[in-house]
Amino acid sequence: MKPNIQAWPRKHASTFPNPQLHLPESLRHQTIVTAQMEEVASSLEYAKHKTKGTPAQILQAKIFQPTEHLPTFMARYGTQHLLEKSLLKEKGYFGHFVHDSAAPKGFRLWHPSEVVLAHGLADVMHIPNDFILANKIVGNMIAVQHALYLLTNTLPSLNGSQVNMMELFDKFRLHQFGSETSHLFPVTDGHMLIKRNMLLLNDFCDAAQQILTWKHEIPMHAVWTPKHGLIEMERIHQLTMPRPSAPPPSSQLTDAEVDIEDTLPDTLIWQPLIRGEVQMEDTQHMFWYSADLPGHVIAKVWDHAFEVNFQGVDQATTAILKPTTSFQERDHPTERCCAVLLIEQELNLISVEPKVALLKQHQISSVASTLYDQFGQIAVFQTASFDAVLTDRPLLHQKTRIDLVYLIAAFRQVQICIFERTVDHAVCFSFQGPEQSQQAVIEFWNTTCAEESCSLLGRRSEIANDTLSFAPCSHDGIAPPTAFKLALAICAARTLLDQLRCEEPDAPEVLLKWDSRPLWRGALHPSHDIRTIAMILCHALFPISKGKVYRIVSKGKQQAPETTMECLRSTNQQPAPIVLFAVMEMHGGGAKQQQKAIQQNALATAFLEQGHPLDWTAKTVDSIVDKVSLHRLQSITSQPKKSTRIQSLMQLCEELKIQIPEPPKPQSRAKKKEELPIQLGEFTLVNAFFMNEDGSPATQIQGIRPQATGAAPILKENQKLSSDELAILVVGHQYPENVPSDELTAITIYKEDWPDHTWMEAVHSTSAFIRKVLQTDQLDKSLQAIWGRSLRNGRSPASPNEAISIQVHATIDSASFGKLLQKSGFNKLYLTPKQQTGRPTSEYRIIWLHGECSVPKAIAISAQTSGCAGLVKGKNGALGLRYPQPAFDAAWQVINPKIAPPTDFQGDQLFKIENLPFGTSHQMLSAWAEANQWTCKPFRALGPTSWLVKAADAPPAGLLMFNTSPLLIRLIQSRDAKKTRLVLGPRQNPTYQSGPEADPWAQADPWSNWKPARPALQATAPVARNLEGPIEAKFDSQEQKISAIRTELDELAQKHEKHAKAVQEEFAIAKQREAEEFSKVHYGMKKIQSDLDNNLANTMKQHSQAMEQQFRDLKALFQQSQKRSKPDAGDDPME
């Protein structure tokens, strides 16, 4: 029977993860390329396969990037250049290097630890310090992937077990070591390659000591593993063989079987807790943590205020936390995989699943029957959080004897600063203000948390001078500072809100939530407003928010400060509690100068809307911004109601003693009539309808020009353009017969499709550029007219340098429109057919291509279908193919054969539906329309309670309801819906059919056929007329203003010349003064120099004279002749 061989899970990739490690200096020294090694590697004599090239090219071919496909690593890697020359000539030099800019030559050898990471590693490994031995081990090592492949295909034939190779390799890649997640841990005679934040247990240390003792020379019939150490093959055979269900009765339990039982791993899921310690200057606090928690998770519990140092398990304390001043990891996106428990005066950090509820995890639910955090009993769905401390008893708050009004007044007079004392990590409050108010605030914070709850969190209160501190108790269960401050803030909020509790039976019940947890619940008086609650939260939650303002959200929107509880009361028969959400105000959004400019614009807008003059507004805004803080200005300008905002601004001006002028009264203006949307260039006056004075037909001119005579169709306001204006406008209701039959379309060009020089040509000469592109397909003559160029950057108008797209409108000959549309998109000119009203036509439909489809692929897809009308580019560069309505379904079946084609909704009326329930979705609105028998298609949400829908007919008559809410449905008129074409010409008089009988009086009346005779006029040339209209008056006024400006400029130029002359004179005087001072200084320096020279010469002369006199005296002494006296007779001769 042929075995079922599973294929190798190939990974198609051009690059691979970088295996380079941050090596110590001692290990980097081992990877330096020597001169002999470089000489052999660049030699043509030792090149593989007789490679041709210069030595530099041969050497460069052996240098690889760390993410490229790498050659094989040999056991003699790093020392292959020392082999015999004959062997190198025969086999070639197989060494290679890695590019490293920090290396002396720009490249270096691979370190064995990096080779292991490149091969693949899923467990720890020992790397000896001996570079040759380490390369020998790595070069002869079987890769993990190869071993997995062989074992997976061998196991079914041994024990019949089936292993999915793809799942096995996915698990291997999940546990695979990487350069970013691992590091080298120094041990005796080498380094251990381990993952970061890994704790080396005793078993592992003993196993590592065994391999160091054997020096990597494992004896025969034995295997070494990091978990079990050195194991003999017989014991491995016993461990892997299946055990009998019941041992024979005559067998005895031997020592060998006892050893086997001891080496078997424990299969129960349990978490060993290891002891840790927080060390500070004066105190030490003990805690317990799960062995699999990494260091950055433990540090996150204390907000990274401590640095974690791991020790070996042979020590009593395996993790020591010491204070640090490094704040680089405070914003680390740490996964919430740790639960903080404070049970029986012991702080425990338990490893949990971050996305699984705490009560569904056995290690948490088995601690106590009921668990509480700072907010109260934990919810069923609640997950882990670093700020939450789980206890077996609830935290209680105390009532204060100080009245709420007096306490709020004291809060406003006292400045509070909260900090953590570095000596013992106590939470401290510092107060500054009037003594009476200060004592009230200290008493409140000291008594707000019950004494037993404070002791449960391992803290006690101490008052010294103006400081209130919550220092750690003597026992070991100390809550982290952040968790304690959270508990203190919750107790303070409940203490203050209890004083607002109303005992009246009809008082509305309020549920206040903070951070999606219930902060307080109780009845409040209907007259209490949002401003009171926000003010209490600002003071009570100071330990967490540092005095920031809170916004109150209810019913899906922010409530105004003056909103009362009565306004928020439910109108249902079964009243539900009023749910309020406390949300901290948003901060940030730009630099201080940018925020200052925003507030200046907001203030200026508010003043100008009230009609104040511009010069006064500019001065007032500058004065307010200089004297008032940005925080207060933001609180004023962000108020939702305009009346409240204006009232606050007026009060601010009174405080700053700024006089507010009376705004001018608004003048009543006549409502301007809407101008008729008429394009005058499309119409022609009837010939001879307008006549000149001499009886000749007046010629049509396009506008009034100087020295021009004729009839001009003009649509203006009721203003007289000239003194002899004789034109008249006749409005008809029929379209002219000579309307052109061209097609209207929009042409879009994108910057990303063209080179830079071609794009600049398109920006500067768009019309010529489009005709040039169409000329390649001989379609340039199909363009009739181009107008309306628009430069865009996204949806915003842009300058030519910043534009990324250009769009123009054009009319195209109907005969060539179909051919031009088929070429569109593929020639990088994207066309959008439009109706005469400007909207896209509904004659075509688009099939969007899924995924990141390229233009060549879109061309290939379009070739498989028939009737393609061009390529379309949508938002974010998405591509689609345009098809006429008859060819859409057939093309859809070719492109998306497994998906049903979308239905074509033919409705062209837009309706706006308002007052929908909050958060109504597309499916909900479609179901409602179907239930009310109204065919419509929702296509855009205008907000949480309003939608735009498209329909073919009006909604059903009557009041439409969504659940219990009445809906407001309005028809949205198109901007071009009211535009109609007008024609010019004589008004046709109604014709009457004559009766069968003639008029008898017409024959008897001699004057019935009389017509006045026109006098013959002499043909004279038209006399030029003097046109004195408002245009000439405007020109005269402009000339006067220009002359006045010129006069002022001349005066300014004269003043400037005088000023320049004065400045030149001042410079000349200063230059002369500087020259005089310089001459004085120069003369003084010369005098000082001469005095110094004279004094030095005199001194040297005197010194030389003294020296000469001393030498003369010495010479005289030497020249004196001393005569020796004869010896006495009694003296003995000297021998």
Automatic annotation (TrEMBL):
Stretches the record annotates as Disordered: 1-21, 1115-1135
Alphabetic keyword roster: Coiled coil
Sections of the chain in a coiled coil: 1035-1073
Keyword Coiled coil: yes
Lineage: superkingdom: Eukaryota
Name listed for the protein in its UniProt record: Sodium/hydrogen exchanger 8
Species the sequence originates in: Cladocopium goreaui
